[in-house]
Model the fold of this input.
Amino acid sequence: MIEVKNLHKSFGEAHILKGISATFHQGQTNLIIGQSGSGKSVFLKCLLGLYSYEQGSIEYNGEIFADLSEDKKRDMRAKIGMVFQGSALFDSLTIEENVMFPLRMFTKLKKDEMRDRANVVLKRVNLEGAHKKMPSEASGGMQKRVAIARAIVNNPKYLFCDEPNSGLDPKTAIVIDNLIHEITEEYQITTVINTHDMNSVMEIGDHIMFLKDGLKAWEGTKDTIFRTDNEVVTDFVYSSNLFKKVREAIIKENK
Amino acid sequence: MQYLHNIGAYFLMIIELFRKPTKWSVMKELILKDIDDLIIGSIGIVAFIAFFVGGVVTIQTALNIDNPLIPKELIGFATRQSILLEFAPTFMSIIMAGKVGSFITSSIGTMRVTEQIDALEVMGINSLNYLVFPKLIAMAFYPFVISIAMFLGVIGGLMACIYGGYASVDDFITGIQQEFEPFHIVYAFIKTFLFAFVLATIPSFHGYYMKGGALEVGKASTTSFVWTSVAIIIINYLATQLLLS
Done:
């Protein structure tokens, strides 16, 4: 479980996060949604410890991350998996070596054991047979799956994803969303996903937090987001004609 | 003020790259890869440039000696001094600032742009140690490249002398051996070690701390070349003043 209390973050004069509190539970896919510039990425980077913050706290299973010693922070980071927006695979390593990378850095496994573990995870993300390819030879969807495999190979307790399906076609995006959701439930990970894709919200939103101008404007689930009266949320959710029609259908159905 | 900030940030980077070392089994492979990329990969171009510039130095010296009272050995002597003291260590390093420096800046800069450095940091890896330290160790072999440049520069001069008919082989070799100061070799290699440090760290600094996209990677490479060259010229002046005067 991750608990965030009253988080404030500024860059110079710009106050980006204005006191966000949230709880992200284990075994759930927690989605952070909001318009561009709402503070989603900054919030995620604060959770990951890439940005320091002025006020508030972030607790991982009751331990305040900022108060940990350097060694404990390092141990904690070994329990974190991250899927970056652009996959962030290491160009000079093959797909298999990319997946083995956290094992090489943090475990004392032998090379064969690492390779076996990497192949198990690659199979889990449906990428068996691609392990000798370089990242540049893989499609966008494949790269995302490799990034997911790399993030989960060391059995993380926490998984963070920054817009995991951006730049993917709708069908591949759903495959990636479902994969993350399945892995979250299967390994009982606390997953936090930063997205503005409404399809993701509808597919995997166990817990959704809506940010606006650095504040938490709404919190709920994929079942409640379509029924909310919160204008800020409805403006965002129903900004496309497709979702406007979905809403009309829901209202009609409820009548 | 920005210059002062960058100088401060550069020295902080130097301290940081020795902290939280990467596992030796991983580091060993990174060092070997960087030796291949930075040292072995540079030998060809260094050999080519050194050989032909050595030849040009000889021709220029020979053509400018039109006084019959000046002995022909001076051609060999001038070629040796030019190549050993300045051309091989200093000017070859400026050429390497373009070759090795821009490679380092663009490879680290691209890792920054594509969030690969963030990925390392999220995993709790000291990305500066992981990326820059192996380059620093690999560049410890840079004097080997400069030795090749020194040798081939003199050989190039000898070849130009023979085929251009500027002096006899005996005269040229006598000139090479004339008034040889072993300390000049020490001086050249002290400079080379200092340049190797600069060649590994300044381009890394510009790549690591760059912001923006692909265009900025190109700009960072250019800036890194300029500042590496400036640092080499300043260090060359100071080292010469301290060691030879």
DSSP finds nine helices and ten strands in chain A.
